[in-house]
Design a protein that fits this description.
304 residues; mainly alpha; 71% helix; 2% strand
């Protein structure tokens, strides 16, 4: 029985890593792309919340969760454009603008989302890989949403884009040195605008995953700071899209550990284990704060 419980926990943690880590994948990839262009967007937490509300509302009103996903991406685009346009001005601080937009978007989502707290919207479909098992824990753990596969494919695609395409090279040049980009005739503001817009869209999709699949409802406390944790995750991943994917799954596994143990009757330290993602974020920030030199992979614009 102990062996069965052990493997049940392992499968539950792996399934939870995918289930909980999926929004981290989208937000971290969005922040990775944004920072690769030399801009920090702390407002992605607001994009996440707004995407969750807009996606849920559109799914409820239209009856199509995929229209909700598109609408959530669109809301993220709008917020990304707003962030980029404000940050184009001299003496405007990226971090201050990001925090302001985070508060603005969250407040807007809470205000317009009140009518959608109670109604039930159509949810995103999932693929059931656990039908071979008679255990409800295993079956639930291996119930994987389609958006995970989109995010998992997006990570190598973004890596290829940054390393192998003309626009990807332009993004990296702008992020490494604005002066070099100007000398090469690269339109800095346009590149950063498009990068921030795409990053905001990714975060919006991550938000609608929360409301349309897991936990699968809209409420004001839905995000739990995942957009802010994604910034630490990008640093931990050294601004590498593939590492963002792996780190997102690590964060998801940390969050899934407590519920996985509880599912087999182990309740000791449950609330402490629920705090594991936040503890992991603090540990990452401490470990990566090295005063002796620049972190590998950090865009050159951040070193100035």
């Amino acid at each position: 029985m102990q062996d069965v419980s052990f493997w049940t926990v392992i499968i539950a943690v792996l399934g939870g890593a995918i289930r909980v880590g999926t929004p981290f994948i989208f937000v971290s990839l969005g922040e990775c792309l944004t920072e690769k262009s030399g801009r920090i967007n702390l407002g992605l937490e607001g994009n996440l919340v707004m995407g969750a509300m807009v996606g849920y509302a559109v799914s409820y009103l239209s009856g199509s969760p995929w229209l909700g996903v598109l609408a959530a991406a669109g809301s993220g685009c709008v917020l990304g454009i707003l962030h980029a346009l404000l940050c184009q001005h001299k003496r405007v601080n990226d971090i201050a603008v990001g925090i302001a937009l985070m508060l603005f978007a969250s407040g807007l989502a809470f205000f317009y989302g009140k009518p959608f707290i109670q109604p039930s919207a159509p949810r995103l479909p999932s693929l059931e890989f656990g039908e071979w098992s008679s255990s409800p824990v295993v079956r639930a753990a291996l119930d994987i949403n389609a958006l995970f596969f989109v995010g998992a494919a997006l990570a190598p695609l973004l890596s290829w884009f940054l390393l192998r395409t003309r626009w990807g090279n332009a993004v990296r040049v702008v992020g490494e040195s604005g002066d070099a980009a100007l000398a090469m005739g690269i339109p800095i503001n346009r590149v950063r605008l498009l990068s921030t817009m795409a990053g905001g869209a990714f975060a919006g999709v991550g938000g609608c995953y929360l409301s349309l699949y897991y936990p699968g409802s809209w409420s004001e406390g839905l995000s739990s700071g995942q957009g802010l944790m994604a910034v630490a995750l990008v640093i931990f991943a050294r601004w590498n899209p593939m590492y963002c994917l792996y780190a997102s799954l690590l964060f998801g596994a940390a969050a899934a550990l407590g519920p996985a143990l509880q599912s087999v009757g182990i309740n000791w330290g449950y609330y402490l284990l629920n705090a594991a993602p936040y503890i992991l974020t603090l540990v990452i920030m401490i470990v990566t704060s090295d005063r002796r030199g620049t972190l590998s992979g950090m865009p050159g614009e951040f070193v100035k």
